[in-house]
Every structure is written in structure tokens, then in C-alpha cells.
């Protein structure tokens, strides 16, 4: 019987990663998570109906932020062994400068975070795989509806630039000789515009590739977390999934 993968979560209080973490804990997967405020993470998991018993048994939380190399490295281990999989849902909170210019509270959070994760993972004797939650709007092929282009160009320009650099860092890492890599494989998940709510369910999620994206207006954060759990974590074998090495667009 295939052993369940262990999973480390970064950005675990964010909607997509939080939804994925909740499903993993409910299914009995051993997980670790980095959190600046562990009580906030605990409360969010309770809101998603994760039993206290599952949180206590399956979740290990390290208090700290993504700039703390030691805390990140600690999160990459469970019971003295490196995790099999990393899920990164890092992102900043939007704010407006001068009332009109859209930016983030931390405009480089995604690239900075992935740099720290890769640096920390470099010392793992067994290299993990990584799933990073990115965004549509980065592909050379149009992957958003025409009506959404002005929004993406203006409101989301800053976070998109950050995510472009984040993606490039992961791709560059995989181009290194195998013995020098910090990771064993990657998947970039590119959801369309994220919304709150219960979601539409796995059967309604449309998937695409960088060459042939799935084009749509929105997807719920819970559906993104659901897709990552069902299509990546909850598989017979972590290494045999069809999406590794790809940029997968998700929408409904």
C-alpha cells in the first residue's frame, strides 16, 4: 500500500492553502504549517469543520514568518524526516496608494517566500516536490476573458509581477543539475480570479495547460484547495500525477 505523503504548508491561513490543509487533515494526512499567528490558523480550520482531534493528531505548527529561515526549515520536517510535498499559497494583501494605485502590503512576498523555501529545502536529504499557487494572466497565451484584461493590467499588475518572478525561481531551480536542486519536481497552479464561498465542486473545475489554458472568470478558493488535494495529495502515488512540471490553469 502506498504510504501517504507528508505535506508542509506555507501561506496556510490563505483561502486556497487553508482549504487544502483542512481536507488533508480531515483525511488523516500528517501535515506541518508555518503560521505567524497559530491561533488564527487553528480558528480557520475549525471554521472548515476540522475536528479538534484531527488538528491535534495530524498537524504540527511552527510559529514564525516566511523570512525566518530556521522556522521555514523546521516546517519542512515532520518527526525528523523531510516532508514529501510542499504547498505554497503565499500572497500579500491588496492596498491602494494615493487612493488609485493598486499594490500589496508586501509586493515581493511570493518571490521572497519561495527563495526562503528553496534555500531551506536545499539541506533536505530527500528532496520534496512543490506546488505553488500562482495566477492566470501570466501566460503568453491569453488565459483570461477579454473583459477581464483591464482589471488584470491595472489592479493585479503588482501581484502578477511578483508571481512571475516566483515561477521563474522554481523553473530555474529545476534546470540545475539534479544533485544541486532543492526540489524533486514542481506544479504551478494558476487559478482565475479568486472568490470566496463554498465552491462548485471538483466536477465543475476546468483545467488547462500553459499552451491551452482554461479560460474563465473566477474560481473559489475552496475549489482550488479541493483540486490540489484531490489531484495531487490524495493520489495513489505522489510521483505519478499527470500534472508535474506543468502550469495548470483552473477555473469554473
UniProtKB/TrEMBL annotation:
Pfam families named in the record: NAD_binding_10
Entry protein name: NAD(P)-binding domain-containing protein
Single GO term (MF): biliverdin reductase [NAD(P)H] activity
Source organism of this protein record: Aspergillus welwitschiae
Similarity field: Belongs to the avfA family.
Domain of life of the source: Eukaryota
Residue intervals of the NAD(P)-binding domain: 11-230
